[in-house]
Amino acid sequence: MTIAVIDYGMGNLHSVAKALEHVTHENVVITRDPRRILGATRLVLPGQGAIRDCVGELERTELRGLVDDILTRQAKPLLGICVGQQMLLERSEENGGVDCLGFFPGNVNRFPATMRDQHDQRLKVPHMGWNLLEQQQPHPLWDGIDQHEHFYFVHSYYVEAADDAHVFGTTQYGSVNAHVAIGRDSTFAVQFHPEKSARAGLRLLENFVSWTP
């Protein structure tokens, strides 16, 4: 069995692959070869940087149609990470507005620049560092992960899913309750970086490797 980390030129590919190798004996490959992607048992869609560039590179490498087809057919488990989560929504405010893959109804919005904490201190954007996650409903990827566990984030934009049934985890940052874990059928996607989130992040990856939707 093989886990394919989709290489379209954007994302923390090697760190994600190393974290996966730490939790499984399955073969982990970083690839943009459509045959290897289609032949894999599980897929990881990472993402890092501006969403316009991520969507553009997915199209330039001619992998967008393949990813769309896999999402539509729900052929195998897929995990989206960071901008890999955001790309699964319909549209992002970033870069003046970017149309995304549209698998999940909803949008990606920028954190307000004027947010303040409970002590009236201005909150920084990007939201960067450890933050508490509120599990909104059960999911196999939460197995062994405590409610209110902390995960590591780096993002200036956040997901707002249109359907609450798709929301599996939220994080409060200032006035925003961001939808940082969303799922549907055999697709699950997170805003945080599991490969940088210590024990909880590795457990989520371990759960993904054993997940049978």
Automatic annotation (TrEMBL):
Subcellular location field: Cytoplasm
Enzyme Commission (EC) number: 4.3.2.10, 3.5.1.2
Record flagged with keyword Ribosomal protein: no
SUPFAM superfamilies: Class I glutamine amidotransferase-like (SSF52317)
Keywords: Amino-acid biosynthesis, Cytoplasm, Glutamine amidotransferase, Histidine biosynthesis, Hydrolase, Lyase
Gene3D superfamilies, alphabetized: 3.40.50.880
A GO molecular-function annotation: lyase activity
Pathway: Amino-acid biosynthesis; L-histidine biosynthesis; L-histidine from 5-phospho-alpha-D-ribose 1-diphosphate: step 5/9
Database matches in InterPro entries: Class_I_gatase-like (IPR029062), GATASE (IPR017926), Imidazole-glycPsynth_HisH (IPR010139)
Reaction(s) this enzyme catalyzes, per UniProt: L-glutamine + H2O = L-glutamate + NH4(+); 5-[(5-phospho-1-deoxy-D-ribulos-1-ylimino)methylamino]-1-(5-phospho-beta-D-ribosyl)imidazole-4-carboxamide + L-glutamine = D-erythro-1-(imidazol-4-yl)glycerol 3-phosphate + 5-amino-1-(5-phospho-beta-D-ribosyl)imidazole-4-carboxamide + L-glutamate + H(+)
Domain Glutamine amidotransferase: 5-209
Pfam families: GATase
Active-site residues per Swiss-Prot or TrEMBL entry: C82 (nucleophile), H193, E195
Assembly: Heterodimer of HisH and HisF.
Function description: IGPS catalyzes the conversion of PRFAR and glutamine to IGP, AICAR and glutamate. The HisH subunit catalyzes the hydrolysis of glutamine to glutamate and ammonia as part of the synthesis of IGP and AICAR. The resulting ammonia molecule is channeled to the active site of HisF.
NCBIfam families: IMP_synth_hisH
Record's protein name: Imidazole glycerol phosphate synthase subunit HisH
Protein's organism: Vreelandella gomseomensis
Gene: hisH
